[in-house]
Amino acid sequence: MISLKSVAEIGSIREACQVAAEVLKELEELVKPGISAIELDREGEKAIRKRGALPAFKGYRGYKHATCISRNFEVVHGIPDDRKLKEGDIVSVDVGTKVGKFFGDTAATFAVGRIDKRLEKLIRAAKEALYLGIAEAKPGKYLGDVSFAIQSHAEKNGYTVVRDLFGHGIGTELHEDPLVPNFGQKGTGPRLEEGMVFAIEPMLNMGRSDIETLSDGWTVVTRDRKFSAHFEHTVAVTKKGTQVLTEIK
Question: How many domains is the chain built from?
Answer without folding.
Answer: 1
